[in-house]
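Q: You know discrete backbone vocabularies at least as well as I do. I have my own habits and do not want them to colour yours. No explanation is needed for now; the record alone will do.
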Amino acid sequence: MGIDYYNVLKVDRNASDEDLKKAYRMLAMKWHPDKNPENKKEAEAKFKKIAEAYEVLSDPQRRVVYDKHGEEGLNEVQPSRSGAGVFSSQNRQTMYKFNPKNADDIFAELFGASRFSGFQVPPAGGGRSGLNLSGTNHAYEGTTSTPLRKGPPIEKKLPCTLEELCNGCVRKMKISRSLADTSGKSLPVEEVLRIAIKPGWKKGTKVTFPEKGNEEPGVIPADLIFIIDEKPHNVFKRDGNDLVIVQKVSLSEALTGCTITIPTLYGKTLTIPCNEVIAPGFEQVVLNEGMPIAKEKGRKGKLRIKFDIIFPTSLTGEQKFGLKRILKESS
């Protein structure tokens, strides 16, 4: 049987011409490549298959051949004017070959244009559906259409961990929205959007998916905008392109020096010697160990280490005497 064109259009085998048109319009709007920039290859393939299915089933002669002989029959059986299939052979004539029309041409025949820029309601009393293209407001022949307004943008926060913003990742967001068919009826659909988060992105970065809002007659769907938000981290605090960490050290370590180990967002561990006296407010800086700089490939901010000096809660008389003597000698 090959491809089940009825299943492609989601109609039964007794579907009328009007059923076929409605099914094609709904699916063509959903899978038009212009409306699916994130998965354009998949959309193009489905858009072409939907157009091919409509072309076959909307033609009475081809439909008879398809119903009797399946998809393979379209390449072997010459549709006749009576609707019956006439087999061709190499001895009689050149083998008949079914060549589907261009999917954009079929879309234009039903919608009035091959590019998708906003669906308009057909004029009263029937007629073709139209699209508003490049500011042109004459989607119907002989009819002046009302300029479409666009819905206000829909903004959603997208909380990300510091690790995701440091290393980059792909987030998949499932959305629910409604599509409008040619009659204005709303059809609920679910869709998964793929968001590629680049290393170094900051809180407030916006990712826009054009026209992914609900469809309504006479209204261009709103843009869906995800705004990057930053989740609190239990070790680091971000300051622009820098990462700040607070490291606890004892008074003895602060005075005599120490070696500290610092985890990183990349998964490695840094071993850092602290040879200077760590005074209150002292900050040690490690270059190129901060956040990636999104617009400067290969560059990173600084890792800034702040110190929290832990003082002893009590000292013995002997310890106090010893400290006085040492500190007096070093002054």
